[in-house]
């Protein structure tokens, strides 16, 4: 199941290519929800190692970020925060998990952005915010963290919401098969 | 979009080295770039990588792909740091009264980018000259469990299959009236669900079939596994490693001793 979820990460990032979000952790989140937090972590880490081995020479360090997203998404599902039910309460909980994932991504990627790339992220609109904050007199760390959080806030909430909608549509029998 | 391993098969010394030797070489080349703030030393390490790429008979593809990936990644870093670096005060090229290239920013960007060249350049050479199966076997020999190593390297075969399935799902959904071309970004995000749900269901079925095939071949067996391609560290590895480490040390001493003092440009 893990290599297939790596594939979901790769194709969802490809589908999101002309949108403002990355969506490259969707498979890790789904793996975390469906097959548990440890598998979410493994899918996240291996996705970036796979990308490094195939088409993205700069993906390796961000394996930590993708792994943390898979782990936290899976932990939230394990704690019963993410369920296969619909309704306003569950939608609220799903959005809350998206916010937690945004914080997770920001806290794990900012040190990498600053250390490796001087604070830039590789997404033009996020780098424009970063440059604007620097021009406004901000220091590198707070500027990079703020720009990263703005992008992660949008990316992780939208991506996790999509992951949850897909999860609700997967028949329980399939999920039981995978977990067994 | 097409995903395939970066490995380029050639008959060369670099290809014959054990992957573990190449990982140590990569760390050895990256270390001086990480430990010092010398632009010239990082460039010297990158030059050494290019020489190793020539030895590995992959120099043309290596330089072409590095040049292609450098531009979109390095250009924003250079522009943002040279124009807006917080500690930058010395103007070098003034565009507007508030917008000018700063010496401190240019130096910071140059140190950062040459360091990235040395770190990622070495990693990229490793992937170009190492057969993925050998990398998996060497990782397992270093203690990585098969349950982690197998999914990583089987993904190289499986991800292209998922991509072609996505194309099938796209065509099937378009025949049912789903609009996929010339749509807004919001519509694109909404399309994720009808595209990825069938893909995930197909993936679960595929995983079930593969797990049966793997178990039929003793995947979970406790018996010690053997490898199709045997890997071992040979005298060639030790000799090559020793020679390269000596070159790295000599280059570091020479470059650092010839650096100007004071050194405002980070050379």
What is shown here, in short?
The complex is a heterodimer of chains A (180) and B (267). Chain A is an all-alpha fold and 180 residues long.
Descriptive overview:
The complex is a heterodimer of chains A (180) and B (267). Chain A has 180 residues and is mainly alpha-helical. Chain A has a single domain (2-116, 156-179), classed as Arp2/3 complex 21 kDa subunit ARPC3. Chain A has helices at residues 2-15, 26-35, 37-54, 63-78, 88-117, 124-135, 140-169, 172-179. In chain A, α3 (37-54) packs antiparallel against α4. Chain A is globular and about 55 Å long. By secondary structure, chain B is mainly alpha-helical. Chain B has 2 domains: 13-130 and 232-258, no CATH class; 143-216, no CATH class. In chain B, a hairpin with a 2-residue loop joins β1 and β2. In chain B, α3 (39-55) packs parallel to α5 (103-129). Classes of the chains: A mainly alpha (180), B mainly alpha (267). Chains A and B meet through α1, α3, α6, α7 and α8 of A and α4, α5, α7, α8 and α9 of B.
Unreliably modeled segments of chain B: none
Q: Considering DSSP H and I runs of 4 or more, what fraction of the residues of chain A is helical?
A: over 70%
Helix content of chain B: 55-70%
Count of domain modules of chain A: 1
What value does the average pLDDT of chain B take?
88
Q: How many distinct helices of chain B?
A: 10
* CATH class membership of chain A: Mainly Alpha
Q: Output the helix-strand order of chain A.
A: HHHHHHHH
The largest beta-sheet of chain B arranges its strands as 1-2
Helix count from the secondary structure assignment of chain A: 8
Indicate the CATH architecture of chain A: Orthogonal Bundle
Global Rg of chain A = 16 Å
For the record, give the distance between the C-alpha atoms at the N and C termini of chain A, rounded to a whole number: 12 Å
The global form of chain A is globular
Task: Label this structure with key terms.
heterodimer; A: 180 residues; Arp2/3 complex 21 kDa subunit ARPC3; 8 helices; B: 267 residues; mainly alpha; two-stranded antiparallel ribbon
